[in-house]
Automatic annotation (TrEMBL):
Residue intervals of the DnaK suppressor protein DksA N-terminal domain: 39-109
Keywords per UniProt: Coiled coil, Cytoplasm, Metal-binding, Zinc, Zinc-finger
Record text on subunit structure and interactions: Interacts directly with the RNA polymerase.
Annotated binding of Zn(2+), by residue: 117, 120, 138, 141
Transmembrane helix among keywords: no
Stretches annotated zinc finger (dksA C4-type): 117-141
Originating gene: dksA
Protein known as: RNA polymerase-binding transcription factor DksA
Amino acid sequence: MAKATSSASRKRARTPEEVRPGFTPYKEKKGEEYMNDAQAEHFRNLLLDWKQELMEEVDRTVHHMQDEVANYPDPNDRATVEEEFALELRTRDRERKLIKKINESLTDIDSGDYGFCEVCGVEIGIRRLEARPTATLCIDCKTLDEIKERQYG
């Protein structure tokens, strides 16, 4: 019989360290200016590390696909391999778009626009940016955006 777990232990949010091993959250200092040089450098490193991981994944996919191009005489085997390739390519396409967003965020850091909502100009917030480093909207504008999307399709 399986051990029962309490609802509190099941619903506990994972810490950033659990989600991204080796990740160290930024420790804000009292009275510190938002998106100062130290914060900008923290997010630049976070984005560059993320981009590097994605690029390594792309390389692994290319090598995997080159290794797996063997001729499969059985149509079922061939179909399985082709389906796996199609799934991998869709994943890489999403990652390509994510790399583009990462590059845009790095450009925003260089220009001093990073961390501010592109709609209303309010601070997005350190914790939100650590959860989603490519975020361009504050939580309020993002919520409104999602509501409009649901209403208008």
